[in-house]
Amino acid sequence: MHRQTQSSLLKFLYLLLVAALLVPLAACNNKPESVSFMVFGDPAEYAAYQTLVDAFQAEHPEIAIELIHIPSQSDYRKRMAADLAAGMPADVLLINYRRYADFAAQGALEPLGPYLAQSELIAEGDFYPQAITPFIWNGELMCIPQNLSSLVVYYNRSLFDQADIPYPANDWTWQDFLSTAQALTLDTDDDGATDQFGLGMEPSLIRLAPFLCRAALSWWTTPNSPPG
User: Fold this and answer.
1) Which residues is 92 bridged to in the sheet?
2) Out of 121, 144, 199, 218, which residue is the most buried by the measure of CB atoms under 10 Å away?
3) Residue ranges of domains in the chain
4) Long-range contacts of 154-160 (CB under 8 A, 24+ apart)
5) Which pLDDT does position 11 carry in this prediction?
């Protein structure tokens, strides 16, 4: 892991853990003995979180961190929802921007905006607006972004080479994308069935959305043409 990236992540974790400590301290004068931190992900992700926890505890040995790891994201969401409903969630947890509003409306989340404003380590301006804005609910910053996901397209060079099609260029258009996908869609044994598809993707709305939006925009701007 790059040193600067590790430093930024450590600051991120530090702020979250400090927030978790300050919330119970508002109700009593005793410092909590430990802070629970629930995460999900494969073994490599878990190892990265453990590295961050170890680095944090090396600087703050007086704070014990309980790292709770749920490998499956779906199992993690179920566990998180159940814990929040029972009023016994982890002190620090990961939550997707598409799912936090329901919990915020129920008062289950502590807004982190005030802690971020007081931090001397990181500031709101350190984050891309696209990453932090979705976590503003009713004028309050509820969560601090951990990362920013973006959809990417991988292409099979062997298939491009076999079809003698140039690799994608930096100035590729949607029409280039469509034409190439159509050219790579083949019935290789002439039995009337497609054996090779020019595009493969997960059939979920979040993955289909960019293509659906583009098709709708194409139809809207040229209503006499079928969606591309």
Assistant:
1) 37
2) 144
3) 3-141, 157-221
4) 159/184, 159/196, 160/184
5) 58
